[in-house]
Structure formats: structure tokens, C-alpha cells
Amino acid sequence: MSLEISNESGPESPAASATAWLDTAAAILRRPWAGYVARALLTFMFWASGLAKLLDMDAGLAEMRHFGLEPAMLFYVATVAVQLGGSLLVILDRWTWLGAGALAVFTLLTIPIAHDFWAMEEPLKTLEFHVAMEHITVVGGLLVAVYASATRKGAAA
């Protein structure tokens, strides 16, 4: 019985199969529509919330009042405009820095307004802390989108 170890990657080898899969995935991700899908997914929490507020204005206004944001109508309109307008700019990759920047500032402002974990008791304190950390991560994702847009546009120029 002979056990030989080979470094060769034949067409049936796991290494060749993984390489082919990665090449296929990379080819898909280089397609223009993949960028739109990625940016739509990145901004999903914003545009879904903005659409929900548009579809149920009373609930949107109640949310503003719940967090002490008065005049509620002004904050409602501003929130919907930032969520939908910022998302659209990011998804279309037009003035991405402005759309992502507006969404990032909006997201950071929600932490002291709606997720003030430092003023809460357990177990809500820990839950809201994690939500705040997720918000910071979303801001990082938005910054990556700005970087990717600028890099892509710089390479095209």
C-alpha cells in the first residue's frame, strides 16, 4: 500500500474545484448589477424604514413623539428624506459620499436618542449596547461604500 501526497491540482482536485468556484463568484461580483444589489442590501434598514414611515405616517409620527422629537412632523419629514434620499444616492452610486454621510450621521444620532444604553437597567442595557455597536458597524459599512465608490471612479478616470 502506497500513500503519496501530491501538490498537483488536477481538474478533479478540491483545490481546482475551490479555485473554479472562486473564479465564478468573482466574475459574478464584477457584474454591474452586483454593485446595485450590494448597495441595496447595505441600505436596506434605511429604505425599508423610510418606506414603512411613508406607508404609515401615523406610526412614523408616533415614533418621533415616543423619542421626544418635536415638532414631530419636522423630524418625520427629515427622517424619511434622509433614509430614502441617502439610500437612493448610495444605491445609484451618485454622490455616494453625501448619501452615505447623511445615513452615517443619522445612524450615529440614533444612539443617544433611541439606544441610550448607559441610562438603562439590565437586561435592556446589554441589548441596547449591542444595538449601538451594530449601528457603529453599519457606519463602517457605509464608509466602505464611500471608499469603494471613490476607488472605482478613480480607476475609471
Largest sheet: none
Uncertain parts: none
**Helix and strand string, N-terminal first?**
HHHHHHH
Total number of strands: 0
The number of helical segments is 7
- The oligomeric state is single chain
Structural class: mainly alpha
The mean pLDDT is 92
Binned, the helix content reads over 70%
Kindly report how far apart the N and C termini lie: 61 Å
Report strand %. under 5%
Radius of gyration: 22 Å
Shape: globular
Brief overview, please?
The protein is an all-alpha fold and 157 residues long. It contains 7 helices and no strands.
Helix and strand arrangement:
Elements: H1 14-29, H2 32-42, H3 44-55, H4 57-66, H5 72-92, H6 96-114, H7 124-156
Helix pairs in contact: 2-5, 3-4, 3-5, 4-5, 5-6, 6-7
Essential attributes:
about 160 residues; mainly alpha
Q: Please, could you describe this protein's structure?
A:
The chain has 157 residues and is an all-alpha fold. The chain has seven helices and no strands. The radius of gyration is 22 Å and the shape is globular.
